[in-house]
């Protein structure tokens, strides 16, 4: 297998978002969980997205795991590696976008790396280096209240300067609009000044196509699914990849019981949970009881198991920003997050042992904890439920399963029923 594109995603939902985008753009794509073991049978593909759970871990660990993934991808012929980050640039001043970018850049000897989280299909646009989420700057969006990495600065040049050892430049929209040669010239100018990375503006998909053409000539880029779209279209338009029509199926139906788990506290997920209450039983976990170890996961299982035969259920830890802040003040941000993720993983594991074969999970960290516990090594990409969220079919796992891993902010108000309708 010679890869046209290698990707390293810093969380599992982000990885399936990117795998979905690449698939829709004509690349045969598989998503792996971590660096694949040698005996994992992978189909012949154009792109592999290695999913890491490296967004919120210590920076040194994120660097070493990303470098291991890069080595594996380059070893399979990937000339270009995309480091997939969140379209809302989720990170803290301690990392991990800057440190991972610096390490991968050093490994491949890239002079200046293009960086953009723009993903217009989901309302993420970048102008003059400022990230907008819908109509508002990042720091006024719900991301200001994110439980793990609240985002308080929409100027990504400033944000990345605080994380990276290299200087950060800007390639503005006026340059992008002038086309690929103008971007090449600006990038060369920045590289000539010793500037090692540049935030590049993008508002429309056509901007990402221009960016993709230039990025594909380099060894490394950093961004969300938008730049993935640009790279994929560039690989197809330059004939490096033969466009494959995206498969609209994930194979034979798996049947079995269905359940949903929500650990995301995003505004979108809170709305989706509220809407799900109308169509399925919903259990709201008590997050404080999870942290103090008072049998909350067992309570959830006792509640869920008798109901599953009747139809899907939803178990949610999600709370409002005020409640999240109060819990974190009492127990610490990382301890609270970790305990809740592990409780979700415990619940998922027992649900699968009880016959659940169709599982919807909301939240990147939550999905990471669940998929790790289920020991699923990889996924094939099926139909799209919502922008950035495909149906996934587990490969190499103990049970034949369908999953949907929803990024916290993605999906329409009826996401849970939309997902279950497509997961047969
Ligand atoms: N009620 C709660 N109070 C505090 N923290 C919570 C609560 N419920 C969940 N969490 C934690 O908040 C974090 C949510 O992160 P997660 O990545 O799962 O969702 P997200 O950030 O909205 O999604 P994404 O990363 O895909 O955008 C997890 O660590 C989770 O355990
Ligand atoms: O880019 C995004 O917003 C998502 O794919 C994601 O990474 C959320 O965790």
Automatic annotation (TrEMBL):
It catalyses: 3-dehydro-L-erythronate + ATP = 3-dehydro-4-O-phospho-L-erythronate + ADP + H(+); 3-dehydro-D-erythronate + ATP = 3-dehydro-4-O-phospho-D-erythronate + ADP + H(+). Its EC number is 2.7.1.217. Residues 260-416 form the Four-carbon acid sugar kinase nucleotide binding domain. This is 3-oxo-tetronate kinase. It comes from the Bacteria. It holds the Pfam family NBD_C. Residues 5-229 form the Four-carbon acid sugar kinase N-terminal domain. The lineage of its organism: Bacteria, Pseudomonadati, Pseudomonadota, Alphaproteobacteria, Hyphomicrobiales. Belongs to the four-carbon acid sugar kinase family. InterPro entries: 4-carb_acid_sugar_kinase_N, 4-carb_acid_sugar_kinase_N_sf, NBD_C, NBD_C_sf, OtnK. NCBIfam families: OxoTetrKin. Keywords: ATP-binding, Carbohydrate metabolism, Kinase, Nucleotide-binding, Transferase. Catalyzes the ATP-dependent phosphorylation of 3-oxo-tetronate to 3-oxo-tetronate 4-phosphate. GO terms for molecular function: ATP binding; kinase activity. It comes from Bradyrhizobium forestalis.
């Amino acid at each position: 297998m010679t890869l046209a594109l290698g990707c390293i995603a810093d969380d599992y939902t982000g990885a399936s978002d990117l795998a979905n985008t690449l698939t829709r753009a004509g690349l045969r794509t598989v998503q792996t969980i971590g660096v694949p073991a040698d005996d994992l049978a992978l189909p012949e593909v154009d792109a592999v997205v290695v999913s890491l759970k490296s967004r919120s871990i210590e920076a040194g660990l994120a660097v070493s795991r990303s470098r291991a993934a890069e080595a594996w991808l380059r070893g399979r012929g990937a000339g270009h590696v995309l480091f997939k980050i969140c379209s809302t640039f989720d990170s803290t001043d301690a990392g991990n976008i800057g440190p991972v970018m610096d390490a991968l850049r050093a490994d491949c000897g890239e002079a200046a790396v293009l960086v953009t989280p723009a993903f217009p299909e989901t309302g993420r646009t970048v102008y003059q280096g400022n990230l907008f989420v819908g109509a508002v700057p990042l720091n006024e969006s719900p991301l200001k209240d994110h439980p793990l990495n609240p985002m308080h600065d929409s100027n990504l040049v400033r944000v990345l300067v605080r994380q990276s050892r290299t200087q950060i430049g800007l390639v503005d929209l006026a340059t992008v609009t002038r086309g690929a040669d103008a971007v090449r010239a600006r990038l060369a100018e920045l590289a000539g000044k010793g500037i090692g990375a540049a935030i590049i503006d993008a508002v429309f998909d056509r901007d990402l196509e221009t960016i993709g053409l230039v990025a594909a000539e380099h060894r490394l880029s950093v961004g969300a699914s938008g730049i993935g779209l640009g790279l994929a279209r560039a690989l197809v338009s330059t004939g490096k990849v033969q466009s494959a029509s995206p498969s609209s199926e994930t194979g034979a139906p798996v049947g079995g019981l269905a359940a949903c788990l929500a650990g995301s506290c995003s505004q979108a997920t809170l709305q989706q949970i509220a809407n799900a209450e109308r169509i399925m039983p919903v259990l709201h976990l008590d997050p404080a009881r999870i942290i103090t170890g008072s049998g909350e996961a067992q309570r959830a299982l006792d509640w869920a198991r008798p109901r599953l035969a009747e139809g899907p259920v939803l178990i949610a830890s999600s709370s409002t920003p005020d409640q999240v802040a109060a819990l974190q003040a009492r127990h610490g941000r990382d301890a609270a997050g970790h305990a809740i993720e592990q409780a979700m993983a415990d619940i998922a594991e027992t649900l699968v042992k009880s016959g659940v074969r169709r599982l919807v999970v909301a939240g990147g960290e939550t999905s990471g904890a669940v998929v790790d516990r289920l020991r699923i090594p990889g996924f094939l990409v099926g139909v799209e439920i919502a922008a950035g969220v495909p149906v996934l079919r587990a490969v190499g796992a103990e049970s034949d399963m369908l999953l949907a891993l929803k990024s916290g902010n993605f999906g329409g108000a009826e996401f849970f029923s939309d997902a279950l309708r497509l997961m047969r």
